[in-house]
Structures are given as structure tokens and as C-alpha cells.
Amino acid sequence: MLLSVSGLTHRYPGQSRNVLTGVGFDLARGDSVALTGESGSGKSTVLHFLAALDRPDQGRILFDGHDIVPLADKPAAALRRSRIALVFQQFNLVPALTVADNIALHAHLGQRFDPEWTQTLIRQLGLAELVTRYPEQISGGQQQRVAIARALALRPDLLLADEPTGNLDETASAEVLRLMFRLVAEAGSALFLVTHSQNIARQCARRLHLSGGTIRPVGS
Ligand SMILES: Nc1ncnc2c1ncn2[C@@H]1O[C@H](COP(=O)(O)OP(=O)(O)OP(=O)(O)O)[C@@H](O)[C@H]1O
Question: Can you give the residue ranges of the ABC transporter domain (predicted)?
Fold first, then answer.
């Protein structure tokens, strides 16, 4: 199992209730999962834990058999530069780097740069004309596509995405999803995607719903 999560329990300081109580699920290579839930239900909290950006009070997150919960900042950051990629709502592009350099940045740092795959992403995400520009010279939707290309360029084992198509029109959104599913299929990655859109959720192989601090499968 690529990812095996169990017993995630967390309460933010100053809160009277747990945001998560015993959350658990598995994610295999080639699998795609959509996580839905009301605003404030704890979806971003789960994503942050899976990305080792934050640590739950209790629980285990086995990534390829190793618990990432106790990881110190440095190995956690190394994991995010090599095997776990994030597409969050804040794009975090580097303002001093061109679009091309932003896209290649993490793949280079993680020594996973593949020029052919990067070119495919640039072409299919409609970024070819923009590669020499800087982030401030492109639109919000274009910045989002650059952030997605940067994450996919790494060919991550695990792709974590928070509303990845939030700023995109229908055509761009469909293309982004197509590329994510292609990565999952071709590279044997796994996709964990947070979304409010039932339409997007339905395109994933499985759906999970977060409510009252616990996760339940939807459908099937
Ligand atoms: N750093 C924090 N300190 C205290 N409370 C927090 C903190 N971060 C999140 N929370 C609270 O935890 C709950 C879950 O937040 P979270 O951002 O995970 O929800 P979400 O499901 O991602 O919401 P949305 O769909 O609106 O993005 C909310 O009630 C939020 O106010």
C-alpha cells in the first residue's frame, strides 16, 4: 500500500472539539481519491498532515511503509521535493523565476527532471507561449496551471491537490484532470484530491467524505 492512514486525531489549540477523530483510509498506487466535506470539516487539515507540513496529535501515516508523522522538518521537506507533490490553493510560485524555471524547480531539486515529460505538460497545459514570463506577468488561472505543471513535473508517487482547478474554466479544468489521471495511470502514482465539486469527485476512482471528524466512503 502506498499510503496507509490510521487513527488520525487532532485538536487545534484553543478549540473545544477535535477537528479529526480516528480518521483512517488507504491509498494504493494507481488509485485516485476525492475528499469532500463541508467548509471547516477538516479537509485541509488532513492534506497538511499527508504532506508532513503539520503533525496530528495522534495517528499514523505510513507512506511506502514508513510513518511520516514523526519526521523532522528537513526529511519532511526532502520528501516533498522528491516523492510527494502538492497543488494547493496558494500557488507559491517563485517571483524571480520564469514560468519555465518555476515548472522545473522541484523536479530539479528532487533530481527527477524529465525534459520530455516537462515539455508534454507545458504543451498540454497551454503554457508554451508563457515560459519566458514571470509569475506577475500571467493571470491567476495561468499561475494555477504553472503550479500544477510544477507538481506533475516531479512525477510524484503521491499527488496531493486542494481544489486544483478552482481558478480554471471548464476546458482548462478538464485538461488538468486528464493530466493528473494520466500521471496516476502511467507513473503508478496516487492522487488525493480535495474538492467541493461533485462533478470532479465523481471522476476519481473513489470518493471519501469527511464529516464530524471522521471519514466515510461515498457510494459503492
Ligand atoms: N491553525 C488553526 N488553529 C485553530 N483552528 C484551526 C486552525 N486551522 C484550522 N482550524 C479550524 O479547524 C477546522 C478545520 O479547518 P480546515 O481548514 O481543515 O477545514 P476545510 O474542510 O479545509 O475547510 P474549507 O473547505 O473551508 O477550506 C475549522 O473549524 C478551522 O477553523
Answer: 3-220
